[in-house]
Amino acid sequence: MSEDSEFLEKVEMKFDVVYFDTSHDYETCSRQLRQVRRVCKDDAIICGDDYSDDSNMDGGNWGVKKAVSEAF
Hints:
By secondary structure, this protein is α+β, with helices and mostly antiparallel strands. It has helices at residues 4-10, 26-36, 64-71, and strands spanning 15-20, 40-48.
């Protein structure tokens, strides 16, 4: 499974720590944060990088910070 959405949907394991470093757009981050809960143990830690919504970074339109704020 190479796609994160497929992996998060099908994996049967439960994890202590999950680290995201994939797409930085709002839709992807929001989806990942919804999906990841299923594969986390009760006291799991969810991590990621580039906690920003600065659209000037890397020339993209980021939504990481907004997605995290809404999820938690």
